[in-house]
From TrEMBL:
The keyword Hydrolase applies. One of its GO terms (molecular function) is beta-glucosidase activity. The lineage of its organism: Bacteria, Bacillati, Bacillota, Bacilli, Lactobacillales. Keywords: Glycosidase, Hydrolase. PROSITE patterns: GLYCOSYL_HYDROL_F1_1 (PS00572), GLYCOSYL_HYDROL_F1_2 (PS00653). The active site is at E384. This is Beta-glucosidase. GO terms for cellular component: cytosol. It comes from Liquorilactobacillus sucicola DSM 21376 = JCM 15457. The keyword Hydrolase applies. One of its GO terms (biological process) is carbohydrate catabolic process. Belongs to the glycosyl hydrolase 1 family.
Length: 485
């Protein structure tokens, strides 16, 4: 009789933790030699459900530079992690974190992006953060570029559209890898790299004056340069610190067909292919044939250097990470759309939605874990997943059973995927402490297990308060996912 044992629980070395980004938590935007970043010139949104980025053009950048306040640019203040990191990491340790995902602000290390010497004050801050994590035995997972880059590179060479930015980035990654050799085992190059198809926030490219066809060509060209830079950084890491691992990071947008009509199924397949294209390149080392056809049929011409394909093929990533917040529905015909985390698609009548219109689909996480494992056969890491909600502080407490319910259902599906045979490394929910929203730059959209006393205008004591979910997640980690009650 053929009998095979299958895993029934989370692996013993499973990495439980939380994820953040420098531009959403650090603050201290203009001290200790840090340069201005692209994230700090994007105005806060006017409509929390549209999820569209405000238009960035030379005039808006100039206005932002001339505005030395944080009123319209909340990412400049974050939640002042820069001065509260010890307190915050202590709280993460109290929950039992095995890993903490954070990003290094490129402009703290190289204020203009192309400086020849790094800013030592910037390094000293991250030295202290790593010291604190080591005190509690928490693994760092570091993102090298998380929706920000030195603004000076946009002004000088229009961000990633210029091939020169590859050399600027790899100069930055080299000094970072050498500085933290032996101290950091897990790295990511670009956060949600596929969202670069939406423009400035990921690529630092000003293209608002172009028509849609020209924008698409420019964005894919800039993203090609990022893909090359990612491969070069992966090669650097393997040479500088052979025991360390590099991962890629995707905003996973699982797409369902609206009906079983073949036309709808094909439309959904094409959307998924475009979503997974970036991970295909980073994990497999080559441009997939379906995108070569897409480029040809849509007049997109990618300028490649002679050795680019060799570079991509020589250094695939070690593991595949992704964010997962929602799924969408696609039809061959136009229909009602919803928005979330840069994903747009049809409304699914079988799913509930968050206050921000994001469709909640725990089973979709199991589906995407299985599909990505089958596609790449590399360890997977869920590095973002969470519920943004309008939390209420009542009598010094936050009773967020809705968040516990959301996370419980997603973790249950993670466990099912592990039983399916998926090799899952870890889970860093977004974000373990309330922070500034990426898409809207508001504070009201709260994800954390820890409440931060700050409103959308920046008023408040910045006091940290444990929510009910704090104690629940502590129990989940201590039981290695066995106790989800």
């Amino acid at each position: 009789m053929y009998k095979v044992d299958f895993p029934k629980d989370f692996p013993k070395n499973f990495l439980w933790g939380g994820a953040t980004a420098a531009n959403q938590i650090e603050g201290a935007w203009d001290i200790d030699g840090k340069g201005l970043t692209t994230a700090e010139v994007v105005r806060k949104a006017d409509d929390r459900k549209k999820m569209s980025m405000n238009i960035v053009d030379p005039s808006s950048i100039k206005a932002a530079i001339n505005d030395s306040t944080t009123a319209n640019y909340p990412k400049r203040r974050g939640i002042d992690f820069y001065h509260h990191y010890k307190e915050d990491i202590k709280l993460f340790a109290e929950m039992g974190f095995k890993v903490f995902r954070f990003s290094i602000a490129w402009a703290r290390i190289f204020p203009n992006g192309d400086n020849l010497q790094p800013n030592e004050k910037g390094f000293e801050f991250y030295d202290r953060v790593l010291d604190e994590l080591e005190n509690y035995g928490i693994e760092p997972l570091i993102t090298l570029s998380h929706y920000e880059m030195p603004l000076a590179l946009t002004q000088k060479q229009n961000g990633w559209l210029d091939r020169a930015t590859i050399a600027d980035f790899t100069r930055y990654t080299e000094v970072v890898f050498k500085r933290y050799r032996g101290r950091v085992r897990y790295w990511l190059t670009f956060n949600e790299i596929n969202t670069g198809t939406w423009g400035f926030h990921e690529t630092g490219v000003v293209d608002s004056h172009l028509d849609k066809k020209e924008q698409e060509n420019v964005r894919y060209q800039a993203l090609h340069h990022q893909l090359v830079a990612s491969a070069l950084a992966t090669k650097q890491l393997h040479e500088i610190d052979p025991k360390a691992k590099m991962g890629c990071m995707l905003a996973r947008m699982q797409t369902y067909p609206a009906t079983c009509r073949p036309e709808d199924v094909r439309a959904a397949q094409m959307e998924d292919q475009k979503n997974l294209f970036f991970t295909d390149v980073q994990a497999r080392g080559e441009y997939p044939e379906f995108m070569n056809r897409y480029f040809a049929e849509n007049g997109i011409q990618i300028k490649m250097a002679e050795k680019d394909q060799e570079i991509l093929a020589s250094s695939p990533v070690d593991f595949v990470s992704f964010s997962y917040y929602m799924t969408t529905v696609t039809s061959a015909e136009a229909g009602e759309e919803v928005n979330g985390n840069m994903a747009t698609g049809g409304r699914n009548k079988y799913l509930e939605e968050s206050d921000w219109g994001w469709q909640i689909d725990p089973i979709g996480l199991r589906i995407t874990l299985n599909e990505m494992w089958d596609r790449y056969r590399k360890p997977l890491f869920i590095v973002e997943n969470g519920l943004g909600a309008l939390d209420k502080l009542e009598d010094g407490k936050v009773h967020d059973e809705y968040r516990i319910d959301y996370l419980r259902k997603h973790i249950e599906q993670m466990k099912e995927a592990i039983k399916d045979g998926v090799q899952l490394m870890g889970y860093t929910m977004w974000g373990p402490i309330d922070l500034i929203s990426f898409s809207t730059s508001e504070m009201s959209k709260r994800y954390g297990f820890i409440y931060v006393d700050q409103d959308d205008e920046g008023n408040g004591s910045l006091k940290r308060i444990r929510k009910d979910s704090f104690y629940w997640y502590k129990k989940v980690i201590s039981s290695n996912g066995a106790d989800l009650a």
